[in-house]
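Please fill in the sequence for the structure shown.

STRUCTURE ENCODING:
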């Protein structure tokens, strides 16, 4: 029995939905955790937006696992001392070794801010700290903007989010990967 155009479209849609669902399960099973503190990098970058991220960056610095830290995506109204007192960042560490980035308002802008900071600092390796569910997309965006020889170590901070939030983040990850694969000069690139 021949299948009409509507039946073919329905089968394609069902196959696409099945592929998305299987990929989502894989994404959930493969969520990254924290990188070992013994893994040293030149710098550490903390992407704002969730609990535990800044504390993890400070932990990395205090362990001697990085020399300098960038906090990317800081709200323009936040002053360094306010950030330090609210997050328990020692004043000495804030004064000597922590840079605040105020330019980023989304993951792509975070990646641009990180790339500029890494180049300015001359770092050859950087630890990227963000929520575990955000880390795959953030890593792709950051790596796409860094020189190929710069090593990026992912450090996922456990963050309990509802399944709908995780599904949305997975969809953003897919869109990001497709966008990053598009040739330079393509529409929307």
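FILLED IN BY: designer on duty
SEQUENCE:
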């Amino acid at each position: 029995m021949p299948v009409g155009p509507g039946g073919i479209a329905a089968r394609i849609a069902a196959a696409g939905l099945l592929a998305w669902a299987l990929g989502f399960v894989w994404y959930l099973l493969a969520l990254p955790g924290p990188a070992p503190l013994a893994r040293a990098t030149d710098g550490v970058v903390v992407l704002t937006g969730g609990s535990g991220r800044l504390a993890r960056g400070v932990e990395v610095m205090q362990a001697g696992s990085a020399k300098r830290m960038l906090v990317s995506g800081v709200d323009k109204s936040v002053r360094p001392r306010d950030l330090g007192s609210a997050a328990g960042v020692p004043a000495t560490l804030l004064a000597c070794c922590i840079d605040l980035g105020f330019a980023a308002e989304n993951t792509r802008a975070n990646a641009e801010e990180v790339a500029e900071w890494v180049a300015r600092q001359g770092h050859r390796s950087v630890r990227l700290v963000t929520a575990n569910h955000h880390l795959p997309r953030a890593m792709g965006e950051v790596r796409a903007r860094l020189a190929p020889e710069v090593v990026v170590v992912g450090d996922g901070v456990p963050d309990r989010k509802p399944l709908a939030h995780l599904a949305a983040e997975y969809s953003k990850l897919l869109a990001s990967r497709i966008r990053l694969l598009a040739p330079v000069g393509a529409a929307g690139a």
